[in-house]
Amino acid sequence: MIKRRILVVDDNPNERAAVERVLLRSGYEVIQATSGREALLILNQRKIDCVLLDHLMPDMDGLEVARQIKKDERLKIIPVIMLTGRDKEDDVLAAVNAGADDYIVKTSEPDLLLLRIEAMLRLGRLQRELYDKNSLLDKANSDLHKLDMLKSEFVSTVSHELRTPLSITREGLNLVLEEVTGSLNKQQKELLEVAKNNIDRLGKIISDILDISKIEAGNFPIHKSLVSINRLLQKTFLFFKQRAEQKGIEITLNMPKTEIAAYVDGERIAQVLSNLLNNAVKFTSEGGRIIIGLNEGERDIVCFVEDTGIGIADTDLDKVFTKFQQFSKSYGPGEKGTGLGLSIAKKIVNMHEGRIWVESQLGKGTRLSFSIPKYSIQEIISSHIRTAIRNAEDKMSKFSLLIVQAAGVEKEALFNDIEANIKITLRRSGDSVFSYNNKIIIPLLDTDRNGAQIVKKRVSELCQKYISGDKRFKNSAFTYSILVYPDDNTSEDIFIKKIVG
Amino acid sequence: MTDKKRILIVEDEKAMVDMLTIRLAKDGNYEIISAYDGQEGLQMAQKQNPDLIILDLMLPKLDGYKVCRMLKFSDIHKNIPIIIYSARTQEHDKKLAQECGADAYIPKTLGQSVLVDKIKKILSS
């Protein structure tokens, strides 16, 4: 059996010798250290199973040695027993606070000392095992993380590599189909159309797989801004109208005339809608109907896509949002999905704190709905600023806020004008513009004071141009202010105060 | 003497260049020159003074963003219109394309007929 090795640290040679005698008799190997420094040196060089540490020593006392040991990542799992002269509460407390695992009074019976050491060695063994297992887990974890990164990178590279030959093939087909290279007969045209549709289908599968892998790797950022849901629905509707009508499906858009704006990532929500519509068109046959709808509730906005298609069996309903679930296979030669569209839609809706659900009857049709929470303009501005500050912290960049105070101006019209103009003239499509409390609020991401000054100059030119020569604005005036994070000692609260006040 | 417009295509896929050339030849009277990497593209833009540049983003040696920025920063070349024609389709890519000063951005998914419309529009303005 391997001898357990005990390090005895004491400046008094007699006491060291006395302890050593007891330990040697019980079959331990003993190493002596005459000072705290020597003890630390030995600990760093040799494998020690337990430390017996004198409390009072010149230069570096026992408490300091215990602290040093417990501070060291590698050494801290070695049990430390403090040897004290007196059995006083203060001493015990000081020992425990310094990180000692146990203490014993020097005048104790040798048997008691041995019992304590035995206990500590057991503790040390357990700690060592735990430490080893933890290191293994840490390593496995970091390996997994690396593997996951590699997987995402792999998927992203592969999809790009796949897309290049795909777009070349598509271009070639297009050239022939558009009869640039000579005329085609009807059958040739039809065959090439089928080929092209399947190229597009492949393209869609590739981008769906890329999206899923990004979502799963947590690398699917959502950039929220204030978006008109009406306009978004209209755009998506027009995009699908032709396709549906070509298939002989009647498609209608039902929405309130009043503008409904939501704080969302417009591109992503459009993707959700497209995925729902894609399915609706795919699984509805000639003569069927599709309705796109929008309802505004008190707390949320609900969009839905309803069709008179093949429907989904009750037993399959709870699986529709699971990836790679396809039900149409049993329905003969019809079109097939990728089994990814609804799974992606669900992930995106959830990232917006919304809900997505399905109602369906086999053979009758399906209705897929999703909700997006409504926020007050204050909540939206707060959230936007919070995100902007976090972005600046992460990237170690700056965040500027430009506030335009407008007095005596017909606000709504001016706001719309400025928003449109800022987006075009500044070429900063990522920026949002908010109107609140007679102010126009322009958060400028990754922009320092110089950048904000340039924006301010352009915005002020815009405002002046807008009101000049118009009698209604005779008494109008604008004031501009810029706040920069972190330069102006700004925080979320300060930004909000400035906006509300 | 014809008023032939010179178009530089910077694109590393030769097949893409060939197809675009066929389409343009059918469509109008253009002189097409091409480069297959960013460095060559930049040099040709500087020496051959094209009327318009079609620029891919993911290019060997020098990426399209850099080529675009270098041309737009130069007083001599900044007036040559640049259309970015790329397989990258995300909003973020579009933003980057705008920030590097390109005059237009057409995703490859839209196809070359959309690109050709844009070329005609820019060259006639």
TrEMBL record, chain A:
The modification 4-aspartylphosphate is found at D54. Keywords: Kinase, Phosphoprotein, Transferase. The keyword Kinase applies. It is an enzyme of class 2 (transferase). SMART domains: HATPase_c, HisKA, REC. It catalyses: ATP + protein L-histidine = ADP + protein N-phospho-L-histidine. Its EC number is 2.7.13.3. This is histidine kinase. Pfam families: HATPase_c, HisKA, Response_reg. Transmembrane segments: none annotated. InterPro entries: CheY-like_superfamily, HATPase_C_sf, HATPase_dom, His_kinase_dom, HisK_dim/P_dom, HisK_dim/P_sf, Sig_transdc_His_kin-like_C, Sig_transdc_resp-reg_receiver. CDD domains: HATPase_EvgS-ArcB-TorS-like (cd16922), HisKA (cd00082). Residues 157-376 form the Histidine kinase domain. One of its GO terms (molecular function) is phosphorelay sensor kinase activity. Residues 5-121 form the Response regulatory domain.
From TrEMBL, chain B:
It holds the Pfam family Response_reg. Transmembrane segments: none annotated. GO terms for biological process: phosphorelay signal transduction system. The modification 4-aspartylphosphate is found at D56. SUPFAM superfamilies: CheY-like. The keyword Lipoprotein does not apply. Residues 6-123 form the Response regulatory domain. InterPro entries: Bact_response_regulator, CheY-like_superfamily, Sig_transdc_resp-reg_receiver. Coiled coil: none annotated. GO terms for molecular function: DNA binding. The keyword Transferase does not apply. This is Two-component system response regulator. It comes from Candidatus Ghiorseimicrobium undicola. The lineage of its organism: Bacteria, Pseudomonadati, Candidatus Omnitrophota, Candidatus Ghiorseimicrobium.
